Amino acid sequence: MNYRKLGNTGISVSEVSFGTWAIGGSWGRTNDQESLKALDYAIGQGVNFFDTADVYGDGHSEELLAKATKGKEDQVYIATKFCRAGDIHSKETYSYETVRSYCEASLKRLGREAIDLYQIHCPPIEILQNGQVFEVLDKLQQEGKIRHYGVSVETVEEGLLCLQNPNVKALQVIFNMFRQKPIEKLFPEAKKNGVGILVRLPLASGLLTGKFTKGHTFEAEDHHNFNENGAAFNVGETFAGLGFAKGVELSEQLAWIAEGRHSMTTAALRWILDQDEISCVIPGFKNERQITENLRAIEEKSFSPEELQRIVQFYEEKVKGAIRGPY
Question: Which keywords describe this protein according to UniProt (predicted)?
Answer without folding.
Answer: Oxidoreductase
